[in-house]
Amino acid sequence: MPPAPMEAEHTNHSCLLPLTPPLFADTPASLLEDFEQTRATFVNAVNSVVSNIPVEHASFENTVAPLALADASLIIGCQQTRLLEAASGNESIRTAARKVYLETLKIYEWFHGRRDVFDRVSVVYETTNDANLDEEAKRMTEKWYRAFLNEGCQLNDVERKTLQEINEDIRSNRSAFRKVLVEAQDCILLSRDQPSGLSNGVLDSLEQVTDGAQGTPMFRLGLKSSMVKTALAQIQDGNVRKAIFEASEKSVAEALPFFMAVLRARHRRAVLLGNKSWAERLLSEGMMKTPEAVQSFLTELQDKLAPLAAIELDNLKDLKERYLASSGKQDEYSKGFYIWDTPYFHEQHLKQSYQLDSHMLSEYFPVEPVLENMLAIFTEMFSISFEEVNETTARALTDNPRTLVWHPDVKLFLVWETNTQNQKTFIGYLYVDLFARTGKYSTCANFSLHPGFTDATGNPHPPATALLTNFPSPSPNKPTLLQHLNVIQMFHELGHAMHDLLSRTRHAALHGHGVPRDFIELPSHMLENWCSVPDQLASISVHYSYLSPEYAALWKHENGAESLPPRELPHHLTRQLAASQRADIALASLRQIVFAQFDMFIHGGGVHDEEEVKRWWREERERIGLVFVQEKGREPADLGHGFATTVHFIEGSAGSYYSHVLSQVYAADLFDSAFKLDPRCRETGDRYRRILLQPGGSRDPMEMLRTFLGREPSQEAFLRRIGLAM
């Protein structure tokens, strides 16, 4: 539990502020004890409303508002345990956190299954237009009304019992699926010569082991997504890339049964509630409204992209043929172009057409200075600042500074806002957990920890949010160096963090990410645009040799140079790197459409067995994405289950993966309309923050877009970027 408020001196300001940061002194027992206390408080609040408020007298003020306030503590507990499950270095804490998270879901099921509460919320919902409520109160009421319907308050007792059994089925299988992915240590062993092409920094991060059978020294390459992407982009030998890709597609095999069980249970649940599919219910709350509208959007965009993607693919095929001819590595099957070839020959395309060398470029993106420079962009755009908590500040915040974070790798920043009189106001907490470790969530993600809301005293409760990445830890000789793709990925997740930190709502359930699912990705895709602007790229970069005298000496030694390279990425390279974002963009967009169409296939129709799902993943990925997934004539008996090696189709993007594509389209429109001429314009940043970030889920997202743009959003900017519209 958080400590009592205390005076914590902000070292850069003269003011003293009472700060109560989240603490991580948890034990398995304390997690369960805190949960029981939170549950009891919430149950008492629910029972109090039912006991004291007759149905006919229910109003927003006496029913929805007090329950929403009680819900805030439940949200905090739920979000913090999700983080601990994903990132704690202690397996017993991860296990306890998983148990608490599942129990929290049961509380929500119990709450939204209470017909006596539903009766009162229904009265408020039916009178919202007559009660003179503001937009946030109306949307809070509507959100809960839909939640009660989704938990079957309209069903009879037998049907509700069935629904409860289905809910338990979904919960347990989702949890088991997530546990497999978090704790997976799948790897592929490579001989010393097989990783040829991998940068020294990546090689240094690989564990060196001995093959037990032969006693041969080997590299252990983990099959986490960030490492697989890097390996496929750098390793020269196509057979090695193929082996890594196929091993990745067949990794975490224990997760597949849980994946399929969740899909079956979701369909049963949808049918019981009167929907044709899981996606039909989900989409009714979003911007696109129906699976048919999503299908139409994706198919229309796919048809526009396909001709250009075919040209891009022909170019990559030509690059491969020329490479094979010059290297003398041709054989019967080598001339085919496969999915494991795309990342490598995309990199070769960048080198040849844009004179870009990913190894050299990565030297300009050491992860920690890049993070600092990204935060500087937000400082300028949004009039905010980030203070990394040092030992002095940590001791002012708590008697035990180690409890401020869940792992020693984690950095904590206090986030402040500056008004026009240069006065500072505390906003919230940003946590950054950069490096891979055993038991940690396997991909890059943002985790909301505490929502912002107005507490019982009328004061703001500050938000807390966490950036988790899985980059290799620094080697003894070099810092962790990022590929440009990793830079974009980190900026994307920080976009979620900014949405969390800059949202301002009275109710926790509407804060930040409490928006329709097809709007959640928009703020993140918006910020990716800054990675395609030359002067912004330069400002993010710093060559690692400038970070210490030791790094400078090492770089000179490795490169046989007497002087250091430029401190920032040179202008001609930033221009080329920005221009390169159009390289093979239609193929990359089709890949996203593949995932979105797959999501609609598994969530937007009937029940499919495992073989049908695998067949779609194999055949439609080739048809839509245009690239072979297997060697013709050498198809393995089991082509794998790459769809079950990621959380996307089971967790947040389930039924709404299309939102990634939709957000890219709308983000291009927003950026080109408002930020293109001056990406750091404070006035534009303030307007963007006020209209699109600050409301959270308290306003209709399409209405917010229209307000900001002054018109309906359009595909034109996105298509123009890739040469398909003027």
From TrEMBL:
<dbReference type="InterPro" id="IPR024080">
    <property type="entry name" value="Neurolysin/TOP_N"/>
</dbReference>
<dbReference type="GO" id="GO:0004222">
    <property type="term" value="F:metalloendopeptidase activity"/>
</dbReference>
<protein>
    <recommendedName>
        <fullName>Peptidase M3A/M3B catalytic domain-containing protein</fullName>
    </recommendedName>
</protein>
<dbReference type="InterPro" id="IPR024079">
    <property type="entry name" value="MetalloPept_cat_dom_sf"/>
</dbReference>
<dbReference type="GO" id="GO:0046872">
    <property type="term" value="F:metal ion binding"/>
</dbReference>
<dbReference type="InterPro" id="IPR024077">
    <property type="entry name" value="Neurolysin/TOP_dom2"/>
</dbReference>
<dbReference type="GO" id="GO:0006508">
    <property type="term" value="P:proteolysis"/>
</dbReference>
<keyword id="KW-0862">Zinc</keyword>
<comment type="similarity">
    <text>Belongs to the peptidase M3 family.</text>
</comment>
<keyword id="KW-0479">Metal-binding</keyword>
<dbReference type="Pfam" id="PF01432">
    <property type="entry name" value="Peptidase_M3"/>
</dbReference>
<feature type="domain" description="Peptidase M3A/M3B catalytic">
    <location>
        <begin position="232"/>
        <end position="723"/>
    </location>
</feature>
<dbReference type="InterPro" id="IPR045090">
    <property type="entry name" value="Pept_M3A_M3B"/>
</dbReference>
<keyword id="KW-0482">Metalloprotease</keyword>
<keyword id="KW-0378">Hydrolase</keyword>
<dbReference type="GO" id="GO:0006518">
    <property type="term" value="P:peptide metabolic process"/>
</dbReference>
<dbReference type="InterPro" id="IPR001567">
    <property type="entry name" value="Pept_M3A_M3B_dom"/>
</dbReference>
<keyword id="KW-0645">Protease</keyword>
